Amino acid sequence: MHEEISVSPAPPGPGWERDQHAGSIQYLGPIWRKASIGGSHVAMVAGDHHIDFSGSVARGVILAFADHAVGCAGIDSFGVAQVTIQLEVRFIDDARPGELIEGTAELVGMAEDLVFLAGRISANDRLIATSQGLWKRVRPV
After folding, report:
1. Between the CA of residue 13 and those of 33, 44, 53, 138, what are the distances in Å?
2. Cβ pair 9, 46 in contact under 8 A
3. Phi/psi at 74 (nearest 5 deg)?
4. Closest-CA residue to 9 (of 28, 40, 30)
5. Cα separation of 54 and 102, whole Å?
6. Radius of gyration, CA atoms only, the chain
7. Mind listing the pLDDT tens digit for each residue in 31-59?
8. At residue 1, does pLDDT exceed 50?
9. In the chain, N or C terminus with fewer CB closer than 10 Å?
């Protein structure tokens, strides 16, 4: 099969801090955030508990991570929590255990309490997914 990968609770590098607003997404393992100009930047390290039958990180893990990563752009832009109304994710490549999965996102537009966001998910600097969606702002963080 493959060598077992353990997910370290240590930050993946300089500038990363534990995401304190991650909520249930923490079940994926530690989620990290770092300051980013014009959007959000979050990361996680893929472990053995994230893989599917093919040995790659399960698409559902990437989807949940994309939802959180893109949603962080709304929090960073407005300081308010939001709920996902619509999320589209396009899978481009696989991620593997041990890789650093990073998500970046930016605000695309807004109308009243609706926020349009877009993001990119990469694994070790390789694009693995893109996403876009619609979120509704609900309360201050």
Report:
1. 11, 11, 30, 33
2. no
3. -65, -45
4. 30
5. 21
6. 15
7. 898 877 767 789 999 988 899 999 999 99
8. no
9. N
